[in-house]
UniProtKB/TrEMBL annotation:
One Pfam family matching this protein: FMN_red
Name the record gives this protein: Flavoprotein
GO MF: FMN binding; oxidoreductase activity
Domain (NADPH-dependent FMN reductase-like) ranges: 4-140
Any one GO cellular component localisation term in the record: cytosol
PANTHER family referenced in this protein's UniProt entry, alphabetically: CHROMATE REDUCTASE (PTHR30543), NAD(P)H-DEPENDENT FMN REDUCTASE LOT6 (PTHR30543:SF21)
Organism whose genome encodes this protein: Levilactobacillus namurensis DSM 19117
Amino acid sequence: MTNPKIGIIVGSTRPSRIGPSIADWLQKQLKTPHLDVDVIDLAQIDLPLLDEIAMPSDGHYELEHTKNWSRLIQGYQGFVLLFPQYNWGYPAPLKNALDCLYSEWRGKPVSMVSYGGRGGFQAALALSLVLRGLKFHRLSTNIEISLKPADLDSHGHFKAPNQALAPYEFNVQQLSAEFQHVLTD
């Protein structure tokens, strides 16, 4: 029997983003002998803005990039959406990636890991409405990472990611346990 697969979707595509370093750390923390975890970077996926003719809820995809995105997402049993807060909202590439599909998300467990100067609460609040609409199974463990200027270099990247993210290890362990409980029971 294969382990359930969780996809960490990196929701920011900015060239100077800190998301990939958080995703790498999350992946190491979430992975267990009973849970496989991959990073799905939207900057590498490079989805165009909603360019399918039919509504995603129809499930009729004509464009190859949408079919590929659908196949990729169908290979996962759950997701962590990792995103920064931009002006109290979440990044447009993440919204686009979610909106390109519909039934592929239905019923799958999801957690939000937001980050920003104050943790990204407003962005997570806004995204939670979208997750309801897409019929995700929203997990109770969601993490807000507050970025502290002392932990960042002049380019906005972590000086020492493991040290800066250490306060969130317990929360990630709780998330891992919740995924295991939901996906193996």
